[in-house]
Amino acid sequence: METNLLQRITHDINICHGKPCIRGLRYPVDFLLELLSAGMTIEEILADYEDLEREDILAALLFAARLSQIKSIHKIAS
């Protein structure tokens, strides 16, 4: 189940500057997380954005959960 959800998260440099998005659509994961943190329910988000599916919201939450499990972040020299 988790693998199927995470496959909904895509990265394409030509879409939203490469930010993680939902299914190649122009819905960045951080946008959906902000809507949820502002108090919107999954049902409200789905009503406002008809091309999203419940699994898309769950994928965004799972993606955020996985990111929070990273033990350390190292800056890469440019």
TrEMBL record:
Matches recorded under Pfam families: DUF433
Transmembrane segments: none
InterPro entries documented for this protein: DUF433, Homeodomain-like_sf, WH-like_DNA-bd_sf
Superkingdom of source: Bacteria
The protein's name in its UniProt record: DUF433 domain-containing protein
Organism lineage: Bacteria, Bacillati, Cyanobacteriota, Cyanophyceae, Leptolyngbyales
